[in-house]
Design a protein that fits this description.
alpha/beta; D-Maltodextrin-Binding Protein, domain 2; ten-stranded mixed beta sheet
């Protein structure tokens, strides 16, 4: 009798699971970033939460090179959602810099501030950005938002990354390993706080990690590229061995989609992210920084999707569209 009850329960579970999956009529892909950064766990969390709470939606998180490639994936409709840095999104929307044509991106939400790290260790003789001259430096993975921002910071200091230093183009986890193995002298990484690959670098007691301040590059960056960048601080003790605050350049992160996404779908996705923000934070703590205020305060340089505007308007926000349009 007990065996029949168990078998019956299993059959009911299978039928319930099958019924749930049968309702999943829409498949979405979310382009994230490389392992060792914030986009990957956060995007995985979004995929989990959206799939859990939108009855018709099933989302898979994809590992990518980062922001610039994510914009292209949206443009080619090889991804429906993407995490991107605002400067890369602005370039893609305008069809400038490394983008040969305009990509019809739409913002779904302004997420959290992306903090530029310039990471080195004691003994490298690097105290300021200009000390990178003659060093071996990783400027981020090809096609990443980190690489775009690193180029602009170096430009502001009058440094040519291909002439004034030996340049590698590694994602954060590989950059951290290369610095630990003394294969490079420093690396750039733009991400949330804390980033696991930077934390792992400073964990061994034999390594004294330090971050290089670079906020004085902001005036030149803003003059040339617009008000995308603001001053931020990585507080001391954010990472093991970090003894002083680092004054840095910050750019916002966005969740974006293609302009052709259906309004009701965009609305449901945005509502789910905000309604279940605390559950999303279980995947990465940066989700706690997602709030309503940046949505209406010019946090996105590209236009918001109508579905997102509907949700934020319901929440009492007066949407301005975008800060640069």
């Amino acid at each position: 009798m007990k065996q029949l009850i168990v078998v019956g329960f299993i059959v009911m579970l299978i039928l319930a699971t099958s019924a749930a999956w049968a309702q999943k009529t829409v498949r979405w892909s979310i382009a994230t970033g490389s392992k060792g950064g914030v986009y990957y766990p956060l995007g995985g969390g979004m995929a989990n939460v959206i799939s859990k709470y939108i009855p018709y939606g099933d989302v898979v998180a994809e590992v990518t090179s980062g922001s610039a490639d994510n914009c292209r994936l949206i443009g080619m409709k090889k991804a429906e959602l993407a995490l991107v840095m605002a400067d890369a999104a602005w370039d893609a929307y305008q069809g400038r810099a490394q983008f040969k044509e305009k990509i019809p991106l739409r913002a779904m939400a302004v997420l959290y501030p992306n903090n530029m790290h310039i990471v080195t260790v004691e003994g490298k003789g690097i105290e300021q950005v200009t000390d990178l001259k003659g060093k071996r430096v990783s400027t981020g993975a090809p096609g990443s938002g980190t690489e775009i921002m690193a180029m602009r910071i170096l430009e502001a200091y009058g440094l040519n990354p291909d002439k004034d230093m030996k340049r590698d183009r590694l994602p954060p986890n590989e950059s951290s390993g290369a610095l630990k193995d003394k294969k490079i002298d420093a690396f750039f990484w733009s991400g949330g706080l804390p980033t696991s690959s930077v934390t792992d670098l400073g964990a061994p007691p034999t390594i004294k990690m330090k971050l290089i301040s670079h906020a004085d590059a902001l005036p030149k960056m803003r003059d040339k590229y617009g008000p995308l960048y603001v001053k931020g601080i990585i507080p001391a003790k954010t990472y093991p061995g970090q003894t002083v605050d680092a004054e840095i350049a910050v750019v916002w992160n966005l969740l974006v989609c293609h302009e052709t996404m259906k309004e009701n779908m965009a609305y449901d996705i945005v509502k789910t992210i905000f309604d279940y923000k605390l559950e999303l934070a279980l995947f990465h703590n940066e989700a706690r920084n997602i709030s309503l205020e940046p949505q209406a305060a010019g946090g996105s340089p590209i236009p918001f999707h109508p579905g997102a505007i509907r949700y934020f308007t319901e929440k009492g926000l007066k949407m301005k569209g975008s800060s640069l349009n």
